[in-house]
Amino acid sequence: MEKIMRRKGEYVIPHEAIPEVMTRITISPEDKVACVERTESMFTTYWASAGELSPFFLGVMKMKKIIGACCPKCKMIICPPYMTRCPVCQKEDSSLVDLEMGVEMPQVGWMLGTPPITVFANARFARYAPFGRGRVILGESQSALPIQVFTTTGFLKPGIFRRGTKVKIVFRKNRMGFSTDYFAVPLEEVPDKLRDKPGLEETELKWKSLKLSTPKMTTDYKKPFPNILEAIGKFVNEIPKSPRAQRDLMNWARKILVKTGGGKFGLILANQKIRVVKESEVGKPDLMLVVEDPNYLVGWTKGDSLVNLIRTGVVGISNLRDMETVFKLDRLHRSIRRDAEEAKPGKK
Q1: Which pLDDT tens digit goes with each residue over 264-282?
Q2: Is 343 helix (H, G, I), strand (E, B) or coil?
Q3: pLDDT above 70 coverage of the chain, percent
C-alpha cells in the first residue's frame, strides 16, 4: 500500500480548522433546571479518489509530467483530461470513442488570457499569494490547463502576464496531489539552459531576494517616532481583548524587524499576541519590513493595508513568500473593530 503523502509535522485536520470550545448556561427544556452546555467538534475523515483525473495527478506527483488525453480517431488532445470519451467521434455501435490517456504534454505553453492577480487569498491559498490565476495552452491541446502563475522578479504586478505570454511549467518540490503542485512563470524569466528541461522544480530557479537597506534617518521622521511607537504599542495591546484578533494569530510565530527613517523596532508574534520590542531583542528576524516614513505604520493601526503599501513600493519586504504574515497583520484592525462594536451596550 502506498504511504500516506503528508508532510512531516502536518495533521490530517489542522489546528486552525478546529473551532474553539464554547460554553453557555441555559435552561434544560425537559426539567427546566439550569445546566451548562458546551460545543463539541465532530469530524468524519474519508478518502476520495481524483476519479478521471487520477492519471493526471499521479503524473504530476511521481514523474513531474503534465498528462493529457487523445482521441485515437480524430487526434483531438485535451489537457487536463477532464473527460474520458471524445465528444465528436463514435464507434460502430454509436457509443463515443474512448480517449487514450497518458499523452505527455510539452511544459512550455502560452497564456489563453490575462490572468487576474490574487493578493488577498483565502486561508487555503494564503501562503501562495500574491499569485495570478489563469489558463495555459500546452501543445495542440483543445482545452486550457487551469494554473497559478508567479513571477521570479518580486511582487506580481499587472503587465507581467497577458494573453499570449509564453510560460514555463514549474513543479513544487513537495507535491501532494493538488493543482498547486505545479505553476507557471514567464518563459523569459527562466535561464536558457532550463527552458527545455522537463520536470523543472521551483528550487532550480532564482527567486528575487530583496536586499533592503536601512532608510536614511531624518529629523522630520525621528521627532515623531516615539509617538508612533506608542500608537503601535497601544494598537497591539488591544489584541488580547479581541477573540477574533487572537484567532488571526493562532499558531503563528514570527520575529519581525521594522526599519524606518525615524528608527528601528521589532514585532514579536507569539502566543496569539504581538509585542513591540527593541531591535536588539529581535535577534535574527524571520521577516524584515522597511518603510521610509514611519507615519504609514500609524495608518496601518487605523485600517490601512500593508499589502497595498508593499504592492505600491512604499513598504519593502525581505521575503515575498511570507506574505501570509502580512495578511494576518492586515486583518487585525478589522477583527478588533468588530469585537469592539459587538461589545457595545445594546448589541446582541
Answers
A1: 999 999 999 999 999 999 9
A2: coil
A3: 89
3-class DSSP state of 85: strand
User: CA dist 44 to 13, 41, 47, 83, Å?
Assistant: 10, 10, 10, 29
Q: Which grid coordinates belong to 306?
A: 500593508
What is the amino acid identity at position 58?
A: L
Query: Nearest 5°: CA angle at 286, between 269 and 329?
Result: 45
Which helix (H) or strand (E) segment holds residue 328: the answer is: helix 323-342
Q: Indicate the DSSP class of residue 297.
A: H
How far is Cα 121 from Cα 123, in angstroms, rounded to an integer? 7
Query: How many CB atoms within 10 Å of residue 176?
Result: 14
Residue 106 in contact with residue 77, Cβ under 8 Å? no
Per-residue pLDDT of 44-63, as tens digits, reads: 667 767 666 678 999 999 99
Residue extents of the structural domains in the chain? 52-208, 219-341
Cell triple for 87? 465528444
Q: Is 98 in contact with 127 (CB distance < 8 Å)?
A: no
pTM for this prediction: 0.66
Predicted pLDDT at 8: 60
Third-level CATH fold of 219-341: Nonspecific Lipid-transfer Protein; Chain A (3.30.1050)
Distance CA 299, CA 307 (A): 13
pLDDT tens-digit series, residues 192-224: 999 999 999 999 998 875 566 788 899 999 999
Contacts of 257 (CB under 8 A, 6+ apart): 264, 266, 279, 282, 285, 287, 288, 289
Q: Which of 213, 194, 209, 212 is nearest to 153 (CA)?
A: 209
pLDDT at 284 exceeding the cut of 70: yes
The pLDDT of residue 40 is 74
250 pLDDT higher than 70: yes
| Of 53, 41, 71, the residue nearest 140 (C-alpha) | 71
